[in-house]
């Protein structure tokens, strides 16, 4: 067995991995909490699965580029395992095992980290987060429209508009018809779809010879792409009813790189960045394939990544302002305890403990400090109030830092005065 090259110890994380210092962590929390709020408003329930899975789950089920990007290894029990590169095979496995326990339709979401050994490029990391939303046991247009509408609302919730993003929607069936008419066998179709998936990123000189292997000329392909899109009438009507028509475009080049998609597929695209914010589709055969036919269930879902989303949010002025305000508000203190007389520290600690127990966010100096320094610390922490404990105990002073107004009150009234 090859001995792995030792990694030169560095203080930086590995390429494509991130440290989340408090400022970055607060942005991540803002994104996750917004995702959670919107998913719950659509009556989706949160779940999670293991971070490590049998490698086979992805080699057989995800297919495409993902297989070459696995973080895989043999564990001490000699199992071939992989860090999860995506959630779909895991959630399909979980649903298959307890299919009977859940009334359909099942609407589930999860927020988790994923690992792909990607080439270094803008917007792509080796560890990233995804929100996954999936609907099981439903094959209606209403269900598909519900998920597309959730995908749109997940971006609108950050203040993004139809100028910043849109959905590119297609049905893989379009290509089944195209390939079927040319006598191309179903088992060769995934390879063909890989060419279509890369059409936008690869030059014609690369795609053309690959198409020729399927006896499809460049001109023939362009003529097909120029044909009017198939009728998505009922889906459009559903989206129109929700006032969301402007967010959706139909585009035959959208096929998605993953092998398991069977019907409607889509991407959420940020034109200013030329990158996908999210992607998904229908995968009606995956559960039956995983269970050798024992369980069969309709499935439709998508995943949103955090990396491109954060870039877009920072690039659009009003979404950037909203992000910054939200991060500031999340870290601001309700009150800062100023200990003006060290002899009263024990009483001060008792009061601070009560205020914290009532849910206030409060900080105070851990060791004796000048009163002026304590007020500076209160301002720096963005505290709304300073609670000043001094020789007048059990009277205390409450100072509203924004207005610099001050009032005196009894220690037991502080909580009520702070609005709790
Ligand atoms: P995907 O298109 O591979 O689909 O990934 C979905 C989103 O995750 C992408 O649009 C992108 O925003 C983000 N993403 C993917 N790879 C990376 C990376 N290396 N770095 C940063 N962001 C990344 C899936 O994963 C499917 N399992 C989605 C799905 C759910 N289909 C049905 N249900």
Concise synopsis of the structure shown:
This protein has 420 residues and is α+β, with helices and mostly antiparallel strands. The chain has two domains: 303 residues, Bira Bifunctional Protein, Domain 2 (BirA Bifunctional Protein, domain 2, 2-Layer Sandwich); 85 residues, Anticodon-binding domain (Rossmann fold), CATH 3.40.50.800.
What can you see in these coordinates?
This protein is an alpha+beta fold and 420 residues long. The chain folds into two domains: 22-324, 2-Layer Sandwich (BirA Bifunctional Protein, domain 2); 333-417, Anticodon-binding domain (Rossmann fold). The protein has helices at residues 22-41, 56-61, 88-97, 141-156, 173-181, 189-198, 204-212, 218-226, 233-241, 286-290, 306-315, 317-331, 345-357, 371-380, 414-417, and strands at residues 45-46, 52-54, 72-74, 80-83, 106-115, 127-136, 166-171, 248-250, 264-270, 275-282, 299-305, 335-339, 362-363, 385-389, 395-400, 405-410. The chain has an eight-stranded mixed sheet with strand order 1-5-6-11-10-9-7-8. A five-stranded mixed sheet has the order 13-12-14-15-16, with helices on both faces. Helix 1 crosses helix 12, helix 4 crosses helix 9 and helix 11 (306-315) packs across helix 12. The protein binds histidyl-adenosine monophosphate (HAM). Histidyl-adenosine monophosphate binds next to strand 6, strand 10, strand 11 and helix 11. Histidyl-adenosine monophosphate (HAM) is lined by residues 86-88, 116, 118, 124-125, 128, 130, 132, 134, 258, 276-280, 301-303, 305, 307-308.
């Amino acid at each position: 067995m090859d001995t792995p090259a030792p990694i030169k110890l560095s203080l930086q994380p590995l390429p494509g991995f991130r440290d989340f210092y408090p400022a970055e962590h607060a942005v991540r929390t803002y994104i996750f909490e917004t995702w959670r709020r919107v998913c719950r408003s659509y009556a989706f329930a949160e779940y999670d699965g293991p971070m490590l899975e049998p490698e086979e789950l992805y080699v057989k089920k995800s297919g495409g580029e993902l297989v070459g990007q696995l973080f895989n290894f043999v564990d001490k029990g000699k199992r071939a395992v992989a860090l999860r590169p995506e959630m779909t095979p895991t959630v399909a496995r979980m649903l298959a095992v307890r299919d009977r326990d859940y009334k359909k339709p099942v609407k589930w979401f999860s927020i988790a980290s994923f690992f792909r050994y990607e080439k270094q490029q803008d917007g792509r990391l080796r560890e990233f987060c995804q929100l996954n939303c999936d609907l099981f046991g439903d094959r209606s247009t209403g269900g598909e429209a519900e998920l597309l509408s959730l995908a749109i609302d997940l971006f609108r919730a950050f203040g993004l508009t139809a100028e910043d993003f849109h959905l590119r929607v297609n049905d893989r069936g379009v290509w089944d018809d195209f390939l079927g008419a040319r006598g191309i066998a179903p088992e060769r179709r995934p390879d063909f779809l890989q060419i279509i998936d890369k059409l936008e990123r690869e030059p014609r000189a690369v795609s053309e010879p690959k198409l020729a292997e399927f006896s499809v000329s460049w001109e023939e392909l362009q003529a097909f792409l120029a044909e009017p899109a198939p009728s998505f009438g009922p889906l459009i009507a559903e989206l129109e009813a929700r006032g969301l028509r402007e967010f959706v475009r139909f585009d035959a080049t959208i096929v998605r790189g993953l092998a398991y998609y069977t019907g409607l597929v889509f991407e959420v695209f940020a034109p200013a960045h030329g990158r996908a914010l999210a992607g998904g589709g229908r995968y009606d055969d995956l559960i039956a394939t995983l269970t050798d036919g024992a369980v069969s269930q309709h499935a439709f879902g998508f995943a949103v990544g955090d990396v491109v989303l954060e870039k877009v949010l920072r690039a659009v002025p009003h979404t950037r302002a909203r992000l910054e305000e939200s991060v500031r508000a999340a870290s601001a203190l309700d009150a800062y305890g100023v200990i003006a007389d060290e002899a009263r520290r024990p009483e001060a600690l008792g009061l601070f403990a009560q205020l914290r127990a009532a849910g206030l966010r409060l900080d105070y100096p851990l060791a004796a400090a000048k009163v002026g320094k304590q007020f500076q610390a209160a301002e720096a922490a963005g505290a709304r109030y300073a609670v000043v404990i001094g020789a007048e105990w059990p009277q205390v002073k409450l100072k509203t830092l924004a207005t610099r107004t001050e009032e005196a009150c009894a220690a037991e009234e502080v909580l009520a005065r702070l609005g709790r």
